[in-house]
Amino acid sequence: MYDPKSLKAEEFISHEEILETLEYAEKNKNNEELIDQIIEKARTLKGLTHREASVLLACENPEKLQQVYDLAEQIKKDFYGNRIVMFAPLYLSNYCVNGCTYCPYHMKNKHIARKKLTQEEVKREVIALQDMGHKRLAIEAGEDPVNNPLEYILECIRTIYSIKHKNGEIRRVNVNIAATTVENYRKLKEAGIGTYILFQETYHKESYEELHPTGPKHDYAYHTEAMDRAMEGGIDDVGLGVLFGLERYKYEFAGLLMHAEHLEAVHGVGPHTISVPRIKAADDIDPSKFTNGINDEVFAKLCALIRVSVPYTGMIVSTRESQKVREKVIRLGVSQVSGGSRTSVGGYEEEERPTDTEQFDVSDQRSLDEVVRWLMELGYIPSFCTACYREGRTGDRFMSLLKSGQIHNCCQPNALMTLKEYLMDYASEETVKIGEALIDAELNRIPKENVRLICEDHLKKIEEGIR
Ligand code: SAM
């Protein structure tokens, strides 16, 4: 068996082990005794190994799968309550020297206008995002050492954190930029980033190399070991993800869980988040060329299985997914969603949604206010909280809070207070009405009385204008 500690990520997430896992899963997909044992293990909240989880993914028995879905829902409720963290992407630059065959930013695409935000433009985008009510951003950029060097990204982060506008401020900047060096990760950490997010795209090395034929991203090992370098550079919240549709989903799922196992074994802390993007139509990209697309049912199964396999890892779904799909997977374990997103460089400033420089088609095109209202109508608490990060509760400190179960005394009041701020400062009348009723009802669900009283007091202060 593999020893995760002594192997590098690329060695640990080996093709042979994934193939053996898939074979094992296929052989056992009707082994009810084993399936029951795996589900029982998942109930203890210890998570599942990639082999165990792969057996459940291969299983097609509706009764057993229903147990998995019910468990995913239960775990979601126990750990995350009914809170959903809100964020928005901010595209800084679409200059890119890579040749990713699924991404419209690829170097050879001459149809799209290349654009990089100036600091003045960053400021205007951030103000537009603050005016919607966002407090948490994920910055996105292509890879281009000349046009978007790390210094540029750092400058943008400084600009974003410096902008105070009315009651707005961005309190957490997560970063989704190409794999880089330990030294650069250290600089990102010093700049105060939240999570460093990097999608693996695919764990299938051969496909990876074909899908990334040119540019620095071609180097599979460098890309796969990026999270280890990030952690070495002091970033302890890292976000994994694969782009579903590029390769066979069962292969990707095993690879993704092995990556999480590797991080946990080597660094003592697993991934902070897992994103589940599916490939979308985009300029110069025809998704039908990618024959491994997954339907909504498989997508939901994957989300539920990620939830039960890594119960302490947040799960992110973007506006690539429609309202209908988002509704389904939020119930099964997703803890973070974007809202009001624009996937083009400079998109938030434009009146109309620009299509020419968008990175991919956005399925959920509702405004943030609409998304917030919709979540509340479904019984969720949209949360704009960034307290853990601001209080230094990252990496294993965040994980131990989550594992202690104390998160309800911490996250529930913070979610309600940040929602209250949102309602006071940004929401439409209709959203305010629903939100106020929700806050009243949810206050009673804070377990400790003294915490509830403090929360009530803070809510009053927010009403008086304090943020
Ligand atoms: N350039 C950075 C990198 O190389 O990792 C990340 C930024 S990129 C803007 C963010 C992610 O968008 C990529 O990692 C990829 O998974 C995703 N993406 C690219 N093309 C896509 C498409 N056509 N549909 C959906 N997602 C796409």
Q: What would the keywords be for this entry?
A:
binds S-adenosylmethionine; 9-stranded parallel beta sheet; 467 residues; alpha/beta; 20 helices
Protein described:
- The longest helix is centred in the first third of the chain and has 19 residues, at 62-80.
- The chain has 20 helices and 9 strands.
- 51% of the residues are buried.
- The protein is globular and about 60 Å long.
- Strand 6, helix 13 and strand 7 form a beta-alpha-beta unit.
- The model has no long low-confidence stretch (mean pLDDT 94).
- Strands 1, 2, 3, 4, 5, 6, 7, 8 and 9 form a 9-stranded parallel β-sheet that branches.
- Helix content is 49%, strand content 9%.
- It has 467 residues and is α/β, with parallel strands linked by helices.
- Bound molecules: S-adenosylmethionine.
Categorize the overall geometry. globular
Number of strands: 9
Distance between the termini: 53 Å
Task: Determine the strand fraction and express it as a percent band.
Answer: 5-15%
The succession of helices and strands, N to C, reads HHHHHEHEHEHEHHHEHEHEHEHEHHHHH
Instruction: Output the number of helix runs.
Output: 20
- What gyration radius follows from the Cα positions, in whole Å? 21 Å
Give the helix level as a range of percent. Answer: 40-55%
Major beta sheet, specifics? 9 strands, parallel
Mean pLDDT over the full residue set:
94
Low-pLDDT segments: none
Class from secondary-structure proportions: alpha/beta
Present as ligands are: S-adenosylmethionine
